[in-house]
Amino acid sequence: MSIEYDEKGKFYTNVISKVAVPSLVQTTTHLIRGDVHIRQGERFKDELEGDGHYVAVTNASVYGADGSVNYSAPFLAVQKGQIVWIMPMEEGDNKEEG
Hints:
Elements lengths: L2 E3 L5 E3 L4 E10 L3 E9 L4 H6 L4 E10 L5 E11 L3 E6 L10
């Protein structure tokens, strides 16, 4: 990783900092609960319209139509074209339903 500084002391790096936002992602076939990674200060819409074909989701649980957990994974790359809707979870919404 390279870090460059300008004359005012501001630094530049080729690493993009992102924030993990607890979220629900509805795809064409499954509901995914996990942390969606978006750039600091940007919206979900900005992430979906940005470059790249995938959205990174960590701590992911994939739910089937019956509400049971089909898969769990520390990382999941979700193809943007398969996303129907996406929303951040409110405080207190991160409990497992059962």
